[in-house]
């Protein structure tokens, strides 16, 4: 067969001179020093990468993207995809690269490819990715006769190491690119031989007949990187230093074997359309469809093209299940291969992961090993551990993978933001390769390859924090890999209102790119301000139309719940909302609001009110805006002899305690609580309980917060039908605290609330509460004469008023002054975010990826990247350990050894359970005073983790603060007296 011929035979059949054949046969692509001790020839690596791309086409790339590549290549999408993936490293055929390893350079020099003095400093070396663009560009222009096509293809080669340079960077130092007939012939031969080997007649035959849009180019670039990284794994692609052994057929066999051993696969592949339009809801998710769920599903069926759906429905309406059903429909109709569900926090990601796991199993039980949980504390999720780490299942049904006790399975460098080994040649951090953990290539199991740095979104199905979506809209290295993971999926963003003005810049940027890539997006919210809905629609449509300034006024919804749809069809952009009123699954009920004046961080009146609220039975949820306030209220109740169930939930609990306590609250207050629901219970929580926390309280006590967030908290009240309640709690009641009357009647707020939310949004919320509860006085107010709120009917109106232009505060509250301060701060935050957005506004309409990484961020770690997409003071995570006689112990008492040594993964698990995030005020002190324990140096999960070592009395001084950890209260911080 043609492809069974070695590259040497192929070169000779092409009529190349013997000296050219000899020279090309000596060019190396992977040095023995970095490739498991075996040199790999350049043509071998190019063909390996092309072969991996062929397998990816068959088993991974979505139907939708295959269609697009077929369109731009004139029906030869598979071969063209293999070519563009494999050609990426052609720039290694230049002196700057071939001279980098003296042992590898010797046979190249002996064959007659010589060079003079080259820059020795790493920072000044001529990079092979840019060299490849310099080598290809003039040939593409000349042989394709199409500057436009050449213009979007060369950045794919130049950017395969994570950053797209401008055209001005294509200027090699003297001698670095290679001059003279010998080099020119060899470079030409590398391109021509590779091109012929993958099935094209010559380079002119490769010319595309159309262009990918810029977002599609970004996705393609990510797939090129993926193919390159797989083909660069020496454990699966052993080096070949004899060109007579290099052929495309042998590369294909290597690629297929590697794919099987790595257990890589796509998701649905060609997902069939459901016969019954409601089947994705009824059979797949087992729900009796509510009107709002039917509305979303019908919209998903009726959209003529991939688009944006904005779903606004009350808390507890079943939005998420409806979104999953819509995702199935959109994937089947438009050829998508999976789903990414973005959640606002790590805590909300865990229960969603379990829900998506159950949903994915309904398609194929084996697909569960393709569902990733993307956040830094996933090791504490029992289901993730069972599937990805071979741990016992939470339901006791065996374990989730075939490899019993997989060595190092929990020692992966989670979100290690690195690259492949050759990046180290250019002063780039090198990522670790995942250990080969597969004993049986035929057995089903998770693909550990996806767990290493930047690859999580490439899994077919993923659930994680919204940060992962936002990261794909940042100007950071290897952003293309993240975007490629989104481009073949349906993207669902839950609680989309939770993104603040800073994060919203990245969300809007992501929507533009997703719109241009034709990725369906479903946004979910119960409390979305109309202006945000409009902005999201405009952003998506600007991507569809490829221009920065698009405004399609969104019609007012006919009712609430509602669905807004935006898409492009026949060259025009369409935005429309539900034109009929869709009833909620439950009737609106009056919620009585009462003021509980209190601005003391100790919260003594709040504790007393909670005790009184459940004196005759019931479950109270207390949500406050500050950890120290939550701790103080808990302490007050505990010391006061509260005789019911008492729980404290906040962000300064260590990971293990937080996970256990969250699960316990869901068990006692969740939809399946039943007889487990306590007779008397109080849960004191911070904003963790604000959203995506499916609990049902009889009474709510909450600090004042912006109106949309206040309504989210009210969504935890009387949430589930059929919950048994004491007679005193048949009507839902909310006590609003965290505010007190000030001079001239203007409210005073907790300092922490003002710092977090700003005064303007609190004043607006206070005005709306005053309308419902009566004036804020020094005494508890509210009663039968107060109007209250009708929930959920009043929700959209309240949110619209809270964020509208009309003044709503009583005279004398200085609303205008607070507004000006708030606006100034918001503008500053928007401007700050613009520094890191993937594309500058004036460059949005540019047709190629050239120069995309202007002044790019060099964020190298998860925490650094989080700082890019989340505004605020930086904070760090630490692992709490206790000093003990002769060594250290973990937070649970696990013995660690004299220097903190960790012997195995089980001990690592227990130790990492003590992870906690410090407040921003301790960040500088932590950086100056804390370090990993010496015994952690050999443990990937621990070697970079800061240890918060508490002395034998359980405390330590950190900066100016006395820090301790209490098993119930969590991290306790006390300012030292001076």
TrEMBL record:
Residues 35-230 form the HD Cas3-type domain. InterPro entries: Cas3-like_dom, Cas3_C, CRISPR-assoc_Cas3_HD, CRISPR-assoc_Cas3_HD_sf, Helicase_ATP-bd, Helicase_Cas3_CRISPR-ass_core, P-loop_NTPase. Keywords: Antiviral defense, ATP-binding, Helicase, Hydrolase, Metal-binding, Nuclease, Nucleotide-binding. It comes from the Bacteria. Signal peptide: none annotated. In the N-terminal section; belongs to the CRISPR-associated nuclease Cas3-HD family. This is CRISPR-associated helicase Cas3.
């Amino acid at each position: 067969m043609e492809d069974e011929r070695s590259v040497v035979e192929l070169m000779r059949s092409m009529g190349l001179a013997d000296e050219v054949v000899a020279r090309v046969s000596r060019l190396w692509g992977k040095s023995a020093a970095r490739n498991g001790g075996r040199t790999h020839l350049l043509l071998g690596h190019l063909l390996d990468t092309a072969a991996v791309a062929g397998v990816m086409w068959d088993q991974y790339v979505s139907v939708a993207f295959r269609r697009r590549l077929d369109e731009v290549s004139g029906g030869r999408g598979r071969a063209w995809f293999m070519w563009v993936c494999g050609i990426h490293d052609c720039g290694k055929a230049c002196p700057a690269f071939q001279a980098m390893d003296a042992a590898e350079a010797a046979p190249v020099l002996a064959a007659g490819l010589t060079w003079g003095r080259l820059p020795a400093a790493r920072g000044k070396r001529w990079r092979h990715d840019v060299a490849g663009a310099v080598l290809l560009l003039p040939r593409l222009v000349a042989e394709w006769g199409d500057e436009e096509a050449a213009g979007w293809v060369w950045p794919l080669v130049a950017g395969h190491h994570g950053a797209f340079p401008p055209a001005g960077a294509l200027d090699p130092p003297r001698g670095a690119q290679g001059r003279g007939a010998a080099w020119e012939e060899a470079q030409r031969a590398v391109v021509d031989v590779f091109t012929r080997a993958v099935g094209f007649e010559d380079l002119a035959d490769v010319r595309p007949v159309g262009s990918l849009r810029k977002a599609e180019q970004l996705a393609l670039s990510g797939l090129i990187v993926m193919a390159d990284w797989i083909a660069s794994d020496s454990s699966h692609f052993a080096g070949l230093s004899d060109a007579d052994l290099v052929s495309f057929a042998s590369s294909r066999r290597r690629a297929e074997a590697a794919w099987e051993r790595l257990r890589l696969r796509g998701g649905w592949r060609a997902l069939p359309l459901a016969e019954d339009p409601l089947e994705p809801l009824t059979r797949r998710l087992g729900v009796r469809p509510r009107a709002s769920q039917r509305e979303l599903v019908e919209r998903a069926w009726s959209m003529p093209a991939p688009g944006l759906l904005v779903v606004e429905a009350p808390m507890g309406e079943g939005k998420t299940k409806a979104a999953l059903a819509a995702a199935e429909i959109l994937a089947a109709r438009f050829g998508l291969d999976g789903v990414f569900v973005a959640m606002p926090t790590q805590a909300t990601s865990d229960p969603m992961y379990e829900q998506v796991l159950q949903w994915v199993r309904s398609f194929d039980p084996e697909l569960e090993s393709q569902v990733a949980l993307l956040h830094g504390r996933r090791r504490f999720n029992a289901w993730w551990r069972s599937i990805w780490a071979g741990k016992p299942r939470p339901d006791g049904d065996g374990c989730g993978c075939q490899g019993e006790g997989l060595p190092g399975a929990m020692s992966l460098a989670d979100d290690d933001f690195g690259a492949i080994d050759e990046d180290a040649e250019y002063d780039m951090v090198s990522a670790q390769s995942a250990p080969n953990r597969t004993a049986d290539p035929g057995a089903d199991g998770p693909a550990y390859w996806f767990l290493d740095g930047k690859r999580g979104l490439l899994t077919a199905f993923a659930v994680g924090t919204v940060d992962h979506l936002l990261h794909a809209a940042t100007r950071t290295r290897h952003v293309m890999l993240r975007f490629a993971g989104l481009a073949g999926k349906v993207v669902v963003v839950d609680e989309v209102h939770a993104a603040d003005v800073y994060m919203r810049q990245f969300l809007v940027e992501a929507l533009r790119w997703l719109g241009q890539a034709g990725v369906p997006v479903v946004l979910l919210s119960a409390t979305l301000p109309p202006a945000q809905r409009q902005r999201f629609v405009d952003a998506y449509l600007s991507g569809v139309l490829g221009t920065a300034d698009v405004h399609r006024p969104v019609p007012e919804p006919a009712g609430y719940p509602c669905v807004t749809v935006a898409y492009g069809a026949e060259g025009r952009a369409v935005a429309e909302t539900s034109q009929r009123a869709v009833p909620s699954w439950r009737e609106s009920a009056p919620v009585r609001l009462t003021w509980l004046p209190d601005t003391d961080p100790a919260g003594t009146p709040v504790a007393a009110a909670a005790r009184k609220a459940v004196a005759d039975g019931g479950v109270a949820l207390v949500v406050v805006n500050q950890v120290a306030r939550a701790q103080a209220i808990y302490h007050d109740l505990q010391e006061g002899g509260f005789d019911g169930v008492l729980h404290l939930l906040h962000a300064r609990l260590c990971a293990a305690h937080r996970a256990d306590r969250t699960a316990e609250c869901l068990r006692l207050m969740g939809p399946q609580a039943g007889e487990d629901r306590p007779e008397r219970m109080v849960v004191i929580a911070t904003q963790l309980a604000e959203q995506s926390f499916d609990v049902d309280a009889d009474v709510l006590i909450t600090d004042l917060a912006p109106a949309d967030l206040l309504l989210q908290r009210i969504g935890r009240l009387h949430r589930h039908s059929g919950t048994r309640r004491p007679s005193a709690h048949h009507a839902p009641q909310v006590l609003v605290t965290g505010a007190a009357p000030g001079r001239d009647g203007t409210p005073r707020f907790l300092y922490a609330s003002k710092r977090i939310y700003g005064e303007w949004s609190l004043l607006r919320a206070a005005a709306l509460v005053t309308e419902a509860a009566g004036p804020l006085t020094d005494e508890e107010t509210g009663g039968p004469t107060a109007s209250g709120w009708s929930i959920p009917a009043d929700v959209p109106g309240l949110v619209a008023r809270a964020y509208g232009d009309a003044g709503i505060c009583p005279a004398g509250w200085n609303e205008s002054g607070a507004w000006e301060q708030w606006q100034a701060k918001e503008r500053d935050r928007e401007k700050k975010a613009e520094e890191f957005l993937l594309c500058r506004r004036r460059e949005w309409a540019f047709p190629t990826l050239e120069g995309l990484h202007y002044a790019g961020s060099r964020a190298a770690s998860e925490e650094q990247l989080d700082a890019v997409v989340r505004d605020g003071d930086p904070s760090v995570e630490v692992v709490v350990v206790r000093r003990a006689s002769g060594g250290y112990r973990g937070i649970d008492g696990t013995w660690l050894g004299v220097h903190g040594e960790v012997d195995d993964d089980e001990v690592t698990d227990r130790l990492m359970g003590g992870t906690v995030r410090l407040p921003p005020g301790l960040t500088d002190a932590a950086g100056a005073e804390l370090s990993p324990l010496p015994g952690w140096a050999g443990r990937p999960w621990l070697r970079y983790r800061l240890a918060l070592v508490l002395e034998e009395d359980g405390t330590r001084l950190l900066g100016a603060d006395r820090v301790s950890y209490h098993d119930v209260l969590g991290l306790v911080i006390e300012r030292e007296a001076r």
